[in-house]
Design a protein that fits this description.
Elements: H1 21-25, H2 40-46, E1 52-54, H3 60-72, E2 76-78, H4 99-110, E3 115-116, E4 118-120, E5 123-124, E6 152-153, E7 158-163, E8 171-175, H5 177-187, E9 196-198, E10 202-205, H6 206-217, E11 220-225
Parallel strand pairs: 1-2, 2-3, 4-9, 5-8, 7-11
Antiparallel strand pairs: 6-7, 8-10
Length: 227
């Protein structure tokens, strides 16, 4: 395991990312940073001596973090993916949020010796919990983090089932955030990182998922067919 780590707590409302006393109380080292271009040298300085960066920011802040990590000599970087495989995303992707640019930047730095991997975990179970992911401070800027933004609305007891051009319901993989955290922690022990590290807690088609929700919550369905 990495003997020490820096946990950066994210506040998406400003350039500066605020300290989190509850994390400090749990023994984490929290560093307040600014991702603006004018603070790039400062960010690189704070990353000095860090072996591995696991990003949970997207867009320009993540590009700034990647550049600063490369400048500081960080050995490994994991971008804020934590979803399905990048190769399966539509082009153009309305929900990209700079992820493609981040992967392209990491490919450039890989030629200079910085390893990177994408943690592919599918859909987080917490997306279907009351309040959605945003209730757990996850996906605050994703555009689909609220309850009901994706397939199921547990509180309102509604479900949407997407069908493909072949007439079959889509299939998803799901993993809990707790298991994702354990997987990422275990990956720190690997000497070499492949381009992707994949995990899943379960895999099922969305019709079965809706059936489970319907049985538990007495939900109704609204069927959509996607081509």
């Amino acid at each position: 395991m990495v003997s020490s780590s820096i946990l950066t707590a994210i506040s998406a409302k400003s350039g500066y990312h605020s300290p989190k006393p509850h994390l400090t109380a749990e023994g984490y080292q929290v560093v307040v940073v600014n991702y603006a271009n004018t603070h790039r040298q400062e960010l690189a300085f704070k990353l000095a001596g860090v072996n591995t960066v696991v990003s949970v920011v997207s867009g320009p802040p993540q590009i700034a973090l990647i550049d600063a990590a490369a400048q500081a000599g960080v050995r490994r970087f994991a971008p804020a993916e934590f979803e399905g495989p990048a190769a399966l995303r539509p082009q153009p992707d309305a929900l990209d949020r700079g992820k493609r640019s981040a992967l392209e930047r990491l490919q450039q730095y890989q030629t200079r010796g910085m390893q990177y991997t994408s943690f592919v975990c599918g859909i987080l179970y917490e997306r279907f919990s009351p309040g959605g992911m945003m209730a757990r401070d996850i996906g605050l800027r994703s555009g689909i983090g609220a309850e009901g933004d994706y397939l199921l609305h547990i509180t309102q007891k509604q479900a949407q089932i997407p069908y493909g051009a072949n007439g079959q319901p889509g299939t998803i993989c799901m993993t809990s955030t707790e298991d994702v955290g354990k997987f990422v922690a275990a990956a720190l022990d690997l000497q070499q990182w492949p381009r992707e590290l994949r995990m899943r807690g379960d895999r099922m088609d969305v019709l079965r998922l809706a059936n489970v929700a319907e049985a538990v919550r007495g939900m109704t369905r609204c069927t959509s067919r996607w081509s």
